Amino acid sequence: MPDTASQQPTAPEAAAGYEPTERTVPTRSRERAAYDREVVHSILDEAYVCHLGFVRDGAPVVLPTLFGRVGDRLYVHGSTGSRPLREAGRTDPGLPVCLTVTHVDGLVLARSAFHHSINYRSVVVHGIAHTVTDPQERRAALDAIVDHVVPGRSADSRPADEKELAATAVVRLDLREVSAKIRTGGPDDDPRDLALPHWAGVVPLARGYVAPLPADNLDPAIGVPDYITEL
Amino acid sequence: MPDTASQQPTAPEAAAGYEPTERTVPTRSRERAAYDREVVHSILDEAYVCHLGFVRDGAPVVLPTLFGRVGDRLYVHGSTGSRPLREAGRTDPGLPVCLTVTHVDGLVLARSAFHHSINYRSVVVHGIAHTVTDPQERRAALDAIVDHVVPGRSADSRPADEKELAATAVVRLDLREVSAKIRTGGPDDDPRDLALPHWAGVVPLARGYVAPLPADNLDPAIGVPDYITEL
């Protein structure tokens, strides 16, 4: 578990952690919350997709999407025709969003149904998404999104041309109001349940990479690059 | 890819699929959308957590949570003290939510940065969440949530007692306005890029189960049950 002492950073420590707000302090299991920058970044960087929430016609919408991170800025991209990206572009001063990533690290089996749980690491980011218009920032963001999927890949692919760039909207969300939540360890059974005859423990989960499948039309002379075999 | 002919079910086929609505027909990549009941259920059932979106003070909130399915009803649970569950209970006629699950099945590497993608299966459910008060439905929902994590587990654990039940809120979301979205296959490179010297293909991902870790205080005479080794 991360050091919860960082939850209320004083001035000299502020750079190491995000400042908790009413929205980022959970009502339950506060000991699971973390605001440490490195912890937040590592959880974000390990996720292939985020779940992006926004409000449309008064109702919530949650869509999975790729994303990238550059320092304290997150980027998502999409077709200029996609609804949320159009809305982020049109709305002044931007589109209120909530961006969440979650890793399921294990299934927690307790003797009691009540104490069943999962081990997980999640990050929730609240903020306002803005369309990025600066050409240099847009290019850096698109590289970050590709490199988020496979580190090092943007340098080994054809960069977007002007037509592709024109068709792509890039939206930025700054990491300011953000928190992580982490559960680790075994089941928290009640003492009265310990003698029950049910198996208790954790079934850990891990991400598995399967052997890469070359495209049908790939030149057989092109081998699998190291940045893929090292995943 | 699922049969897109089921997207506009006529009366005799209606039972097999969910009816598309304005919210469940994507603005892009419509060929990836699916409304088949079995496809939607299988994607939901394979996910350990969903991302539940709702609106608080005009802003979106997206939180990961366990869930269970009984036929065309989804259930989430939580402490009666948790904010979204309180809101679903207080609000008449319920709390507008969007519940989304996503599986990342592979990393899709194209020659061009623009055509990078992932293979995925997602389900998005729109609807109104209601607090469940019927005791029998509440018990069935809690069993479904435990069995969603490990099928068969609810029968091999101590059921919730009255005190635990009183502390647990159960919320229901009916599967009505729902769609799946699926991408499979290799990269869609432009013909002009096929001769570029970049590796292209798919890196498939798979969920891995690691050997179960018994709780420290587990009686060593209790072996790992079949329903866990069969995961």
Record keyword descriptors for this entry:
homodimer, Pyridox_Oxase-rel (chains A, B), Split_barrel_FMN-bd (chains A, B), globular, alpha+beta, 231 residues, ten-stranded antiparallel sheet, Pnp Oxidase, Chain A, disordered N terminus, Pyridoxamine 5'-phosphate oxidase family protein (chains A, B)
Describe this structure in words.
The structure is a homodimer of 231-residue chains. Chain A has five helices and eleven strands; from the N terminus they run βαββββαββααββββα. Chain A has one domain: Pnp Oxidase, Chain A, CATH 2.30.110.10. In chain A, 41% of the residues are buried. In chain A, a hairpin with a 2-residue loop joins strand 2 and strand 3. In chain A, strands 1, 2, 3, 4, 5, 6, 7, 8, 9 and 10 form a ten-stranded antiparallel sheet that branches. With 231 residues, chain A is of the alpha+beta class. The first copy, chain A, has helices at residues 37-46, 83-90, 135-149, 162-166, 226-229; strands spanning 33-34, 50-56, 59-65, 68-70, 73-79, 95-109, 117-131, 168-174, 177-183, 201-209, 213-214. Chains A, B: Residues 1-10 have a biased composition (Polar residues). Chains A, B: This is Pyridoxamine 5'-phosphate oxidase family protein.
